[in-house]
Every structure is written in C-alpha cells, then in structure tokens.
Write a structure and sequence with these properties.
Distance between the termini: 64 Å
Largest sheet: 8 strands, mixed
Strand content: 25-35%
Order of helices and strands: HEEHEEEEEEH
Helix content: 25-40%
Shape: elongated
Number of helices: 3
Structural class: alpha/beta
CATH class of the domain at 52-189: Alpha Beta
CATH superfamily of the domain at 52-189: Lipoprotein like domain
CATH architecture of the domain at 52-189: 2-Layer Sandwich
Number of strands: 8
CATH topology of the domain at 52-189: Double Stranded RNA Binding Domain
C-alpha cells in the first residue's frame, strides 16, 4: 500500500509538470473568472482614431418661433457631446468639421376637431437645411428627408397651455433630428466598410 501511494503521488507530480509545460507553450495564462477578458498583447491592434473636432454654429431661424433655433442648436450640442467619437469646439477654425444651416418655416396643421369646430390637436412639422463643412473646404449637404419630422400636440382653451404643449413637441422633434444628424456625422467620418472591402 505505501508503494502504491508513492507511485500515485509521483504520477500526479509528473502530470502537473507536463500540463504546465503544455499550457505555457500554448500561450495560456491563468485568469481570474471575472467575466472579462484582458488583452495580452497590443501587437497587430488597430490604432485608436482620435475624436473628430466639431463646431456647431448657431442655426439660423427662418421660422416664426423666435427661440426655435436655440432649441435646435442646444439639442445638437447635447447629442454631439454625448458621442464619444466627437469633441465639440467653439472655434470653427480649429474644427475638423463645421455644422451649419437653418430652420425652415414651420408647417402647423389642425388634426382633429370638437363638435364646436374647435381644434383639439395640431401637428407641427420642423424641417432643417444643414451642411457639414470639412477642414479642406469641401461641403456635404445632409439629406433633406432625414432633416424633416412631425409631431402632434394638444390644444387648450388656455393659450399658454397650448404654447407649452407646442414647445414640448418642438423639443421632442429637435432631439430626434439631433440624433439622426449625429449618426450621419459619425458615418461621414467613419464610413462602414462594405462587404467586399478589406478582404
């Protein structure tokens, strides 16, 4: 019995040594099971692209709402600042891209009516004309269809309440358009590689 125990212990040591040599030769390393993988080497890694410097110019207002251009500009800046691929700069001369344009006149239409022929709700359509100017001087016109959006707001016997509902609809539209514009700018600077490219 003692000889068998000694033989088993010797086999265990040999197996441990062989396993250690095999795993170390294959490049394995002991890793804590935290659920995250840690890169061992940066060899062959793609260099990280620096964020694009973007200047958002004040949007010109051609609508009857005197503050709408500020609502749109603020929405654009908030959305761009939330994107890791973009850094906002104030000076357009220091920017890789400059975003500029205008708010077109609003289109407002009554959607439903009460029995007294009073409008219960309205639809409001916001349309923008925007372009991106590269540091090289090239100008890219953003798609007009993407820059148009409609929302509905409720009417009220109180004029101020109606205006508040209208402002909320315009803010929702501005946020939605800002998200689309940010997506377009990211694709403009980091275009998706086609299926046949890079092979």
């Amino acid at each position: 019995m003692p000889r068998r125990a000694s033989s088993s212990f010797t086999l265990l040591i040999r197996w441990s040594l062989i396993s250690g040599l095999v795993f170390s030769g294959c490049g394995y390393r002991p890793v804590m099971s935290s659920g995250r993988s840690t890169p061992v080497s940066n060899a062959g890694a793609t260099p990280i692209q620096a964020p694009t410097r973007l200047a958002v110019m004040a949007i010109r207002n051609d609508s009857p709402e005197p503050w709408l251009n500020r609502v749109v500009t603020d929405a654009l800046k908030r959305e761009m600042a939330a994107r890791g691929a973009v850094v906002l700069v104030e000076d357009p001369h220091q920017a890789d891209l400059v975003l500029r344009g205008r708010v077109r006149p609003l289109f407002i239409e009554a959607r439903s009516f009460s029995s007294f022929v009073a409008a219960l709700e309205y639809s409001v359509t916001v349309a923008l004309d925007l372009e991106v100017v590269r540091a090289s001087g090239d100008i890219v016109q953003l798609d007009a269809a993407m820059l148009t959006e409609t929302d509905i707001y409720l009417a009220s016997a109180d004029i101020e309440t109606t205006r508040t509902h209208k402002l909320e609809a315009l803010r929702r539209i501005s946020d939605l358009l800002a998200s689309r514009i940010a997506d377009s700018i990211e694709l403009l600077e980091r275009p998706m590689v086609g299926a046949g490219e890079g092979a």
